[in-house]
Amino acid sequence: MYNIIMKFENRLKELRKTNNLSQMQLAEKTGFSQSAIAKWELGKTEPTASAIIALAGFFGETTDFLLGLVD
User: Fold this and answer.
1) Is position 20 within any domain?
2) pLDDT, average across residues 24-40
3) Core-most of 12, 24, 37, 57, by most CB within 10 Å?
């Protein structure tokens, strides 16, 4: 479980930066709060399943990719 969360943190930050988005910009585009995104990237909290699905859809990736289950 821990390894998956670590990969999620890294993948989310990587996708956000690859798309030239600040945490605030990602928050505005997805409807999540900037503080939620920051906590997810720092591993302080875990996103809900619906948040993972929404983020994967926003970035055009699979949930498996976002969770680090596939490369």
Assistant:
1) yes
2) 98
3) 37
